[in-house]
């Protein structure tokens, strides 16, 4: 019997994440937008590591990095592991990147130990998930899922550069080649994504790894509250039509609804007050409401309650309150079958099974249009993400990668020509 090589190398995962963090246009945090000098540097490193793990490497028509580790049956459906290589502005090191590097580490383990699975494995580094540069999320995964459109190619960044022009600038001469990136349901066995939690739950229960049950659907509104401005010193409080006080009451009600409907979350993230003078009663307020839940019916009931409350507040205070829906994203449910395998893998590693709903969007949302999806969350310090202080310990990264490896082997099936079972 051939002796297996060393186990998952958490230190290697950590070292590679540090190397990628230097591919940044800012010195504070990580800023790596798609189709830039920084992203090209990162792609070269990822390509090098994929090849070292025994993968053949290619880029598709939208510049997604794809490493393929062949299976016992090369024509069998592919088990895809992925996450994104881009970042927000002055981001942390781990968001997206941990999933890509952990996927490479899993394949490195298979390669070092001469383990060949039934199905081919592909590790994907998606070009653009965050949507910072072109103001549209999941561009890379949409290309593979077949939902990227010709209109998407014409999206522009703040300098007026279209995606098509950006692709040409990095050497993709035919932007329409994105059409060849799409995969069919028959080609894919499933999509797995490992990601930092970006929340505090795992840390609070002292567990390194959790299983994601689904990604919450999101509804986003803008709202206007029209009152009547007046002199702050001469209009009695009892007869004011103060738009900001109306907004305050509305926001308090929104918090109440969220607390009554856990795990639903609701956020008023932006508020603008006019005229905005210290001695003038606020006459006009604009704001945003973002409300998320995996349960569509519960989310809609909460929205209905908020809209009814806004009418009551408007009538009581002599205001006009209007809401406009600006975004609607359906929830995505993870594969029950794969969730069970992840749970088994967590238990085998000595962890307790913690089930989590992702309130943040991930590439798995786009990939769900073409195949079954599942996600593994890894604990991050203070639940902090999209921030330079984002942090994951080597130990937790190793734990996550081991759960990912175990799950991959359960899904794709273990076969080997070189190891006596």
From TrEMBL:
Binding-site residues, Zn(2+) 2: 95, 130, 386
GO molecular function: hydrolase activity, acting on carbon-nitrogen (but not peptide) bonds, in linear amidines; metal ion binding
Cofactor note: Binds 2 Zn(2+) ions per subunit.
Manganese as UniProt keyword: yes
Entry keyword set: Hydrolase, Manganese, Metal-binding, Zinc
Domain of life: Bacteria
Binding-site positions, Zn(2+) 1: 84, 95, 195
SUPFAM superfamilies named among the record's database cross-references: Bacterial exopeptidase dimerisation domain, Zn-dependent exopeptidases
Cofactor needs: Mn(2+); Zn(2+)
Binding annotation for allantoate: 220, 279, 292
Subunit structure of this chain's protein: Homodimer.
Matches recorded under PANTHER family: ALLANTOATE DEIMINASE-RELATED
Family stated for the protein in its record: Belongs to the peptidase M20 family.
Stated name of the protein: Allantoate amidohydrolase
Species, as recorded: Bacillus salipaludis
Organismal lineage: Bacteria, Bacillati, Bacillota, Bacilli, Bacillales
């Amino acid at each position: 019997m051939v002796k297996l090589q060393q186990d998952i190398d958490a230190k290697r995962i950590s070292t590679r994440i540090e190397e990628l963090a230097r591919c940044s246009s800012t010195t504070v945090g990580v800023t790596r937008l798609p189709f830039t000098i920084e992203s090209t540097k990162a792609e070269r490193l990822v390509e090098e590591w994929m090849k070292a793990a025994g993968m053949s490497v290619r880029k598709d028509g939208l510049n997604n990095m794809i490493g393929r580790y062949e299976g016992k049956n090369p024509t069998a459906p592919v088990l895809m592991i992925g996450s994104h290589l881009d970042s927000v502005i002055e981001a942390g090191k781990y968001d997206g990147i941990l999933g890509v590097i952990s996927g490479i580490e899993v394949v490195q383990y298979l390669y070092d130990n001469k383990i060949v699975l039934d199905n081919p494995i592909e590790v994907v580094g998606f070009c653009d998930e965050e949507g910072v540069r072109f103001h549209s999320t999941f561009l890379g995964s949409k290309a593979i899922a077949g939902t990227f459109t010709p209109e998407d190619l014409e999206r522009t960044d703040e300098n007026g550069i279209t995606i098509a022009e950006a692709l040409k600038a990095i050497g993709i001469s035919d932007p329409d080649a994105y059409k060849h990136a799409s995969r069919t349901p028959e080609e894919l066995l499933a999509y797995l994504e490992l990601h930092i939690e970006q929340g505090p739950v795992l840390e609070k229960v002292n567990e390194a790894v959790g299983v994601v049950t689904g990604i919450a659907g999101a509804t986003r509104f803008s709202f206007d509250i029209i009152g009547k401005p007046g002199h702050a010193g001469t209009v009695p409080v009892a007869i004011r039509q103060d738009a900001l006080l109306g907004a305050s009451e509305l926001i308090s009600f929104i918090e109440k609804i969220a607390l009554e409907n856990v795990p639903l979350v609701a956020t008023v993230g932006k508020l603008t007050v006019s005229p905005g003078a210290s001695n003038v009663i606020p006459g006009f307020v604009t704001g945003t409401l973002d409300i998320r839940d995996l349960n569509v019916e519960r989310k809609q009931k909460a929205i209905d309650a908020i809209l009814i409350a806004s009418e009551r507040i408007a009538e009581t205070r002599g205001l006009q309150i209007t809401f406009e829906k600006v975004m609607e994203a359906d929830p995505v449910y993870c594969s029950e079958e794969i969730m069970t395998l992840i749970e088994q893998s967590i238990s085998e590693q000595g962890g307790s099974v913690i089930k989590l709903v992702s309130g943040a969007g991930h590439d798995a949302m786009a990939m769900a249009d073409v195949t079954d999806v599942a996600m593994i969350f890894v604990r991050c310090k203070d639940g902090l993400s999209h921030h330079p202080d984002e942090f994951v310990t080597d130990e937790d990264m190793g734990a996550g990668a081991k759960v990912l490896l175990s799950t991959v082997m359960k899904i794709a099936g273990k076969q080997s020509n070189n190891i006596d079972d």
